[in-house]
């Protein structure tokens, strides 16, 4: 690929903040569809990376992965302070897995690309990400992400596991997703609880990422809640897991979702 094409691809990262602001249940569908259309010229430039008739497609995939990782590193290095760097990194990671990678998959499917071949580019990007940042980002298609807005119990679990450097497809996340689908949704109050988790979990995760040492909070949540929930599920103690997870969310809600009005009321007492 030529330099101008690679620059166009890397320039996608300049849209990260604007797109993440629209990564919400109410706005994601329209935002994503517009994103795919507005950047059609970029997806077209990428088409050679999955065209079986292109002899240099493996080299092109490596170049694409490198240009994205390098631009991400530039953006992270441009801010000062560990907390700010962590916040920028998390936002870029979220943008990658919610917009760039799903858009690549969507465009490939539109062009009739084979499933096996189309994931070679996203796999190459994920591998380069791990090499550059020590964090593996996992590609998902738009449909899976959109469906996930209805089932957000694992949002905090995923953030905690990534925060302690576990991959997004780790055993613990997979186990909690099965617990959510096979147990939680069958409980009388299960759907209501999951809906509440969805409403507050994204904000909680964003606010943790802005702390001076977010990794300490993630380790605390892992040691005191997530790892214990996983053990309870493995022991088929599903109700105890539900109670513990609910306790964790209540604690997080109290710590991170207190409004300015509540703070003012406390200061006056």
Give the arrangement of secondary structure elements:
Blueprint (H helix, E strand, L loop, with lengths): L2 H8 L5 H5 L7 H11 L1 H7 L10 H21 L4 H29 L4 H19 L8 H7 L6 H9 L7 H12 L7 H20 L4 H21 L3 H19 L3 H8 L2
Helix pairs in contact: 1-5, 4-6, 5-6, 5-7, 6-7, 9-12, 10-12, 11-13, 12-13
Explain this structure.
This protein is an all-alpha fold and 269 residues long. It folds into two domains: 3-146; 150-258, no CATH class. Helices cover 73% and strands 0% of the residues. It contains 14 helices and no strands. The protein has helices at 3-10, 16-20, 28-38, 40-46, 57-77, 82-110, 115-133, 142-148, 155-163, 171-182, 190-209, 214-234, 238-256, 260-267. Helix 9 packs across helix 12. The longest helix has 29 residues, at 82-110. Mean pLDDT is 81; it is low at 259-269.
Q: Which key terms come to mind for this protein?
A:
269 residues; mainly alpha; 2 domains; 14 helices
Mean pLDDT: 81
Number of strands: 0
Q: Return Rg in Å.
A: 20 Å
Helix content: over 70%
Tell me the count of domains: 2
Residue runs with pLDDT of under 50 for 5 or more positions: 259-269
Amino-to-carboxy terminus distance: 65 Å
- Largest sheet properties: none
Summing up helix and strand content along with how strands pair, one would put the structural category as mainly alpha
Topology pattern, helix = H, strand = E:
HHHHHHHHHHHHHH
Determine the number of helices (DSSP H or I, runs of at least 4 residues).
14
| Estimated share of beta-strand residues | under 5%
Shape annotation: globular
